[in-house]
Amino acid sequence: MQQKQQRKFLDISSSKTEQNVVDFRFAIKNAKVTSTLFSRGKRTQDFFTEDSKLYVTPKQQILLRKGMKLDQGIRKWDGLSARVVTEFVRYQPSETSLLLKHLEKRYEMFNDVTGDAARSFFGQFSTVRLWNASIVGSILFGMVMMTFVYKYLGQGASAADDASQQPAIETQATTVSAANTEGDAASFAQQVAQIQQTQSKQALQEEITEMVKGYPIEKMVPRIAEQDRTVAAFIVAIAKKESNWGLRAPVLDGQDCFNYWGYRGIRERMGTGGHTCFDNTTDAVDTVSKRITALVEEYGRNTPEEMVVWKCGSDCGVTGGQAAANKWISDVTMYFDELSVK
Question: How confident is the model at residue 210 (pLDDT cuts 50, 70, 90)?
Fold first, then answer.
């Protein structure tokens, strides 16, 4: 009876007792190597890889739906080329993008400033001034041309022209006075700066109004917007932390003291909690802004971390400790950053 021949595999020796190591390089050199794909319980020897470029993979399909073009060129030495896109989709912000709205607003303000400056600059020239300027320009042009004639053609050319003409008719000389335009450039620059400053104040007032709308501090917004942007940002941010923009403010005889910043300057009229009672909203904003301006400009306290002296004074330990100081800094920073840099 013929014995069934036992199949041998490359990864085992001919017998169990032998411990020989198979040389795979020799085996592969003398054998036909094939690839087998095992997938979902099946196997096949006929398949294509992602690098074959013969089909679209799920990842590539996602990129195609986003509008990207894939590099499907063949004969690339790097198999990763199939994942490289040839063109990227440009970012298009949505209609609700805050950055887009801010850029559009700044662009509109720039157009308004440029238009106002141009109209103001050209509007200051009257018809007489423009006429005088044109006469002066004509005279200067004639002088330059005569200089070229004398230099390159000689005086004879001018004399010949005079001889060929009819006797000159004596006319009465007219004195033309040219308007002085030396200060026009400086005036224009000054007007542009004034218009830009006005536009900036208007923009700041609109931003603050939108932020504090409905709170007692809203009636102080026009006065606050007249301050430097950094000072105004501190006024709004500190008022939010100390009084919730006027909802928790000291009073005197049941009347609002307009002190929304916890200010404790000694005066004849003092409100609840030992806080200053201001005469009116203008007095309140002017007094507080003067103090904040001094801290910013003279002492360099232009960040909430440095302005914490407003809460702590010289020692944060007696006003709730460092934890309370850190909370004050965090809350003030939230609103200060929205207004300080634009």
Answer: very high
